[in-house]
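cache lookup: miss for this entity combination. No prior model stored, computing from scratch. Input as submitted by user K.M.:
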Amino acid sequence: MTAKIRVTVWNEFRHEKNKEEVRRIYPEGMHAVIAGALRRDGGFDVRTATLDEPDHGLGGGVLENTDVLIWWGHTAHQAVSDEIAAAVQKHVLEGMGLILLHSAHGSKPARRLLGTNCTVKWRVAGERERLWNLAPNHPIAAGIGDYFELPHEEMYGERFDIPAPDQLIFVSWFEGGEVFRSGCVFERGHGRIFYFRPGHETYPTLHDASVQRVIVNAARWLAPLRRIDSARSMCVREPLEKIGGAGLPAPCN
Amino acid sequence: MTAKIRVTVWNEFRHEKNKEEVRRIYPEGMHAVIAGALRRDGGFDVRTATLDEPDHGLGGGVLENTDVLIWWGHTAHQAVSDEIAAAVQKHVLEGMGLILLHSAHGSKPARRLLGTNCTVKWRVAGERERLWNLAPNHPIAAGIGDYFELPHEEMYGERFDIPAPDQLIFVSWFEGGEVFRSGCVFERGHGRIFYFRPGHETYPTLHDASVQRVIVNAARWLAPLRRIDSARSMCVREPLEKIGGAGLPAPCN
Amino acid sequence: MTAKIRVTVWNEFRHEKNKEEVRRIYPEGMHAVIAGALRRDGGFDVRTATLDEPDHGLGGGVLENTDVLIWWGHTAHQAVSDEIAAAVQKHVLEGMGLILLHSAHGSKPARRLLGTNCTVKWRVAGERERLWNLAPNHPIAAGIGDYFELPHEEMYGERFDIPAPDQLIFVSWFEGGEVFRSGCVFERGHGRIFYFRPGHETYPTLHDASVQRVIVNAARWLAPLRRIDSARSMCVREPLEKIGGAGLPAPCN
Amino acid sequence: MTAKIRVTVWNEFRHEKNKEEVRRIYPEGMHAVIAGALRRDGGFDVRTATLDEPDHGLGGGVLENTDVLIWWGHTAHQAVSDEIAAAVQKHVLEGMGLILLHSAHGSKPARRLLGTNCTVKWRVAGERERLWNLAPNHPIAAGIGDYFELPHEEMYGERFDIPAPDQLIFVSWFEGGEVFRSGCVFERGHGRIFYFRPGHETYPTLHDASVQRVIVNAARWLAPLRRIDSARSMCVREPLEKIGGAGLPAPCN
């Protein structure tokens, strides 16, 4: 029996409380819909956490006990404390998987880990998005055909200000004329990050079967073998081979 | 006539003042030796800046007027202000080239731009380093043969905690038994970064002709075509193509 | 004074002879239009070569004296001799630049160098193509804005069966609903390859100013520093360091 | 219950018959040792095939029923028929995993799939090799620490004439002064390739526990989700979106 993968679904969870149009689609919050998809799969231990909980719901050992963290944030990126953002970065670098959904491209964890502005072009016009599958044999794309469509989504357009992804899984076509790298894998430290574009709060995107399939696939694939701490450089005083050169090893200070 | 490339050589410049063994090798500071090599080439307008100047010598429009910034830092990474580190990051993302020398792997600009711990194994034992040239047709390696050697250097060993480089130029062999990715190109935002490993302060590495050649090559290759500001996402209210979908574009707010 | 870059423009040159609609657009052949753009730039020594010449116009030292080869082929890929295809591969691996235009994705040189099927989805329906610029500070994209448009082009759609490009410069949006990686840099051996998608023979694409700009930019950027022959493995009988292990070096045979 | 991964271990199997020093180490052939390691793991259905069998042991549906092919070849690369080499390439592009061991860098399947010369520096001097682990959280490196050592191996040195690997897992240090990219993942078509350097026939390398561990790990990780045929471009006559442009779609011919 394989141990279940421990997933924490983090959501800003403010639109659902403040905007009627969002509450109608996600009455219990977007995190609840994502968590439901993971629970139905059966392979995950799922918990949720939200911005307005103490420590944003990520204190008290939650990150230490999370294999994969899913992050949805939008208007309140700055309300996330630097401490928690640094802790998320630290845990990813040790091996924790991270799925960045939609507007999480601008979140503190995304920008700290990727190092760029992570900016986009955008438009909310209810347009059609078609996500083309560039990696049909990648585990993240399992069960996805040549493409899948979302009838109404926010547009994100290039140039997406990210480092070149380590793997490019999806590229989106938008009805209004733009394209976007919509599924991007980044390896950072000992962990893996998957940016997945869909998920605007005013559309029922997270209820879509293909979107849920990709998130479930990614949660499985991002789970690390183990955690490794690489926060400190390490002095290796005793060389592996004899050194014939100038002087003795210096003390490690 | 091509305009000269404007290079700023930044140095922590403390070892040279505090340690006799360093001052003997670099009496005017390591920045002076690097600046000299660039000036002899003739293709650069060179200035220097050091940690203990106001704004670390990088205020007052210096970064705005720098095509390529060279950075050497070691024991005083934390003495660099967050404001200046953020300004360096901003300018690299807009296009400014950045050469990170030796222990600058742990500097604030490096860690902000790369997002990882950037840690290494290390040992100061005067051992031989041989840098193998993996990209002999890359402009950074122009004039370098199959390899070049440094008789005495600090060892840096893998695992080097960096994102996979966009281009790997040099890999080092160390007498004591380690290897290291010693020449790494990273593209971030609209700028390029070159990490170059050699340059420990207690050895005359920066006087070495091959090391100077690589730095000069890199300074030329990293110079950007132009500066581009991508700090903000951009609302594209008017689509390029007619959208037949649900509802009108939302206002850009 | 910098030496001019020597470019050879190779064209299958059959459509222009067999199809009236193509001859109308390219009366002297597509190669003549490309060569004209390069000549107007002034930085190139340009010659042309076509399929039906002896050795396809590439014998007698032409490849040895070519810095960058531009290749357009479509219906007669199989008519290119294996010898010439192997020679093109050999020269690219030694450093010669190669620009593969449009349907050259299926050419023998492309498939030999990339190793994959290089297949695409396609449709000829006079639809609009918009090429988004993902790398505005890359020399290949110099002078190109956020995007450029072609009013009528053949569609190529993903999944494009190529290795992950070393650099992704353009991604196309098509009116009919597809996307495509339209500008791809690959480094192979000591040479660089640029695949550039536009250029269907029944449209005046190669007369387009942006298309010509990209081709001219690429021809400049792909020119190698030098030619390097790596066709044979090399025995290094004398080690650089003393070996204390078992037995003497074996003879190099 | 998960289905077993079907592995075919292919060996040139000539050194073991012609050279006493090789037969002593691998009396039943190197393929037998590799197959034994896979069988002890329990997760694989293992068969073997050798050069001098009809169709090199790879006809009659063997490749169609192989999830991962392991390839060891050295002096007889040219004795492999072009038909079988093309069939291996075809199956990798459809998804079959391929592990290239040691001197298989120069094999026909390697060169067809990678497109480069794949040449190396080399020396047989019984020297020590230390393989540094650059990707300790990658499934291929599961169970491997910071490095592992082989007391006596053939040296392979850079520059290794390969395309930049999609993932770099190991870099070797050699006693005689060279370095080498010893564990390289390449994605080609719908399949994955792992080049793994160790395995010279005159040393007992393939009996080494770490080497066997890496091969077993790789065989598990390279198994594809499915086979996908991308050998032909596909005409998409009916566009997904309405095209307002010039003329009707052309027939698909």
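stored under new cache key. Helices of chain B lie at 15-18, 20-25, 30-41, 82-94, 108-114, 209-222.
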